[in-house]
Amino acid sequence: MGKKTWGIRASIASAVLAASSCGVGLAWSTSAQAASSAAPKVKIAFLMPETTSSPRWEYDDRPDFIAEMKKLDPNAQIIYNNAQGSESTQLQQVESAITNGAQLLVVAPVNGYAASTIVTEASRAKVPVISYDRLIMNAKVQYYVSFNNVEVGRLQGEYIAQHTKKGGTVVMLDGAPTDPNAKQFAEGAHQVLDPLFKSGKLKLGYEQYTQNWDSATAQTEMEQALTKLNNKVNGVLAANDNLAGAAIQALTQQHIKGIPVTGQDATDAGLHRIYYDGTQSMTVYKPIKEEAKAAADLAYDILTGKKATGLVNGSTANGAAKIPSVLLTPIMVTKANVASTVIKDGYTTWAHIKNPAQQ
Question: In which domain, by residue range, is 225 found?
Answer without folding.
Answer: 149-285+333-358
